[in-house]
Amino acid sequence: MLALQEQIYLLNTTTIIYIVIALLFSGVVAWFQYFFREKERRSLFYFLFSLRTVGLFILLLLLINPKMERKEVSYKKPTLSVLVDNSSSIKFFEKESAVRKMVTDFRANQALNEKFEVAMYQFGKELTVLDTLQFLENQTNIYNAIRVVDALDKAHIGPMVLVSDGNQTKGSLYPYLRTKKNTYPLVIGDTLPQMDLRIPHINVNAYSYLNNKFPIEITALYDGEEAVSSQVAVEHKGKVIAKRNVSFTANKTVQLIRIVVPAKEEGIQYYKVSILPIKNEKNRKNNAKTVSVEVLNEQTKVLLLTSILHPDLGTLKKAIETNKQRSVTMKKVVDFKGNLADFELVLMYQPTTAFASVFEQIQKNNSNYFVITGKQTDWNFLNSIQPNYRRSYTNQFEDVGAIFNSGFLTFGQKDISFESFAPLEGAFGEISMRRKFDALLYQSIGGIETQMPLFATFEDENQKSAVLFGEGIWKWRAASFINTNAFQEFDAFLGSMVQYLATNEKRVRLRLDYEKVYAANTPIVIGAFFVDKNYQFDARAVLDLKLKDLTTNRYQNVPFSMKKESFETVLEDLSSGTYEFTVTVVGQNASRKGQFTITDYQIEEQFTKANHTDLRLLAENSGGVMYHEAAYKRLIKDLIADKRYTTIQDVRTVEQYLIEWKLFLFLSVLLFSVEWFIRKYIGKV
Question: I want to staple 78 with a disulfide (CB 3.0 to 4.6 A). Which of 158, 222, 565, 662 is the partner?
Fold first, then answer.
């Protein structure tokens, strides 16, 4: 609440002198008008004299236009921000009525409201002004709630009360959030540990290959003091396919279990991983999770032909064969007598005239191929044997760095810090592209970015090809290992390239982005990316999703909305089960199908106790104190008694000119009008 007091001061003596002179001048003029040489002084003349004097004085006062100061004194109470957890975990702990009672007492306490401006908020995934607590939010983001309130109250003169169990399912680590408001966590729920087994995390590859085996890495956690034993099981289509016995103690609360299972069926396969509950375990909803693996029937044979020995050859073979479904046959080109039709991809390393017969077979069979050039490449031969590019050739060489092209659309590839890799060695000379191409990497020469491609792909109706203008790719795999302590990123890069070149499918214009498994009561976000015939994002497209519930066989249509340079739709309020969907571009011959499963597992029901550790740390880092739910009335009393939070007085000086007061001008006109009317009425001109 603001209490205002106004005081007006004339600023200087000169202005006061002018006002006095104006008053005297106004009186003298009026005296001459009504009393100078007048023998009869009627009583009405004194009234007219007053009207003329005051009206003229006001007019002169407006001409002088004195500047005045108005001092505004305001009193602002500190803001007490009360953030109430509206997530379903409060309901799971059966604390709804207790939280509602606290909210009512915070609102009704007269002394608290006299000292503070009490601002009530509720939060789950997002923060909103407190309306009605339903405790149905399926995610909790405490970090975001504190950050938003901190930004709203820029004065930071009041405390913050956080009514929550402290269990966060989304967002950054809130105990370390730098807030200028003293935060008082009010812990909801039992802080004593209960005996509980749960599976918080499962690590599994997104893809596997038919008739192969793949690992499922399971993290199992235990809360409790007694030694217990249990069993982890993996189910596929309701049948247990693997089991592992596990044991826990008070000091051994984490178990990492690795189970290898076979991939016997093609397509998206769902695996349920569960741990048997122990005696007296109350929360059994966090004992199971479902994961998905897409099983591919992919057998890719790659032929690697060369006329020289080079470290790149071993790097290419190792990286490509990281995927066990791909095999590389490496031959000297003069020794190869086989049939190119036996291979899905031909990789030619630094071609020379010895590759003439290979190129002839490639053109005859429309085989897909990949060329890597370098210092031993015969450019006169390569320029004449293929139609995609030409290079002006000299006997000089140069180092060529890589610049990632984020607009590359041929296949999905992220930037794996290409610019940090050592430069490749290539021939000196300008490259001219003779057919339409898509560049994943551009050349950087001497630190200067160019428009010449370093890695480019070409696509005709029945043939795909690619070229890398430089040797020394073995350095890239080594650099990738140094950056990430693993070869996975570089091997995945070559794997994506091989997967694209080894198939004769045309480039896909419609791509989908979604998860295969969702927890119950979480929004299902499905993203889509559609390009026109020139493979540029088409913002004019209209996308529609047709969803089928495989349990009830019911359909529903859901439109997409555009989000930057992609499309997105959010499906909510779906029950647990498996769903199929088809995304169609209206008016275009483009559609894609997908499938996902919603499990019974709910994120907010994974916790068995309040997270008092993080709440206490938040209080300590922000200068507040943590209270348990039973002590909330003591928290109210402590806030009222805390002398750090006091009403602040603010004095503000506002300058104002008299001419801004339109009432004075109106009053002057009114006085002159009344005087004129009376003079006319009595017949005095």
Answer: 158
Beta-sheet pairing, 438-445 with 397-404: antiparallel
Distance from C-alpha of 411 to C-alpha of 496, rounded to nearest angstrom = 7
Residue type, 521: N
Tokens, residue 486: 């693993």
Digit-coded pLDDT (tens) for 314-331: 999 998 888 777 889 999
Pick the closest to residue 93 from 1, 183, 194, 9 (CA basis).
Answer: 194
* 3-state class (DSSP) for residue 377: coil
**DSSP code string of 603-620:** GGGS-SS--HHHHHHHHH
Instruction: Decide if 202 contacts 273 (C-beta within 8 A).
Output: yes
The runs of H, that is alpha helices, within 590-661 are 612-622, 632-641
Report yes or no: 316 and 304 within 8 Å, Cβ to Cβ: yes
Helices (H), 11-118: 13-34, 43-64, 88-92, 96-108, 110-115
226-253 confidence digits (pLDDT tens) = 899 999 999 998 899 999 999 999 899 8
pTM for the predicted model, two decimal places: 0.53
Q: Which two tokens stand for residue 498?
A: 């091989």
Question: What phi-psi label fits residue 305: left (phi over 0), alpha (psi between -120 and 50 degrees) or beta?
Answer: beta
Residue 324: CB atoms within 10 A of its CB come to 10
CB within 8 A of 178, min separation 6: which ones?
A: none
- CA angle, corner 319, sides to 315 and 322, nearest 5? 140
Predicted local distance difference test score (pLDDT) of residue 156? 66
